[in-house]
Amino acid sequence: MVHEALSSPATTRPAPEMVWIPGGRFRMGSTDFYPEEGPVRWVEVDGFWIDQYLVTVREFDRFVRETGHVTMAEVSPTAADYPDADPELLVPGSLVFRKASGPVSLADYRNWWSWTPGATWRHPEGPGSTVDGRELHPVTHVAYSDAVAFATWAGKELPTESEWELAARGGLDGAVFTWGNEFAPEGKLMANTWQGAFPWQNLLLDGYAGTSPVGAFPPNGHHLYDMAGNVWEWTQDVFTYPAGSLAKACCTTPVTADGPSSAIPRHVIKGGSHLCAPNYCMRYRPAARQGEAIDTSTCHLGFRCVSR
User: For the chain, what is the domain count?
Assistant: First the structure.
């Protein structure tokens, strides 16, 4: 079923389960949370179609079966590309979240992130894990090039950051969340996020320790699901932030605009994930953003597509 956010153009709908987002001007960004989100500015966006749901494991499996695509997590990194890496780590793998057994320093992401050989979209927790029963969960462990390859196969593209944020706002100008200004209206949790003290105490008030099936939480005003929480989403845009400032990142190491760790291009990811918690990463908001290295894949990063 295709929903229409407000009004649609006189053109043929490009695919099922896409929503038309009318173009226009909107206020993008925020100055109330993290420095990389500002300043608030007016942005003009043309109308576009966007996937109602995140790309699922089932859809990605079809793509792989039809194309033979091999994801970046399934290919051994080369010593030429990573000259400072431990040779024993130059094997196929991806980043997997490991819940801490108790309170740990939030200054060191290694307290919860683990480079895991054998972790892929088929084996999201590493060897021995499976996506059986999670076919309708968002696909994860996809690097930027994997998302682009899927979008190209589907006859679509990845959204720009401004397109994504306009769609995520659901017609609510300046609201904190995709559904309004209150995190849990009338006590109802509206997204798959972390409840408790990250990264060791997950109260599971939303019912999910990891990803959730797409559409498990209420849609926003444009009938789009999971525009907050569940998994982060790739966009086309290269990540930038105020020169010389330190951008705190909850999924990667912090980087500076002139720092050595900025050598690998980073693209904007949006929406937050099931690992976002108020005590560490309150990024399940439309204005929230951070940069992810394009060669990186994780257990909480996926994507959706657009058609223009």
Answer: 1
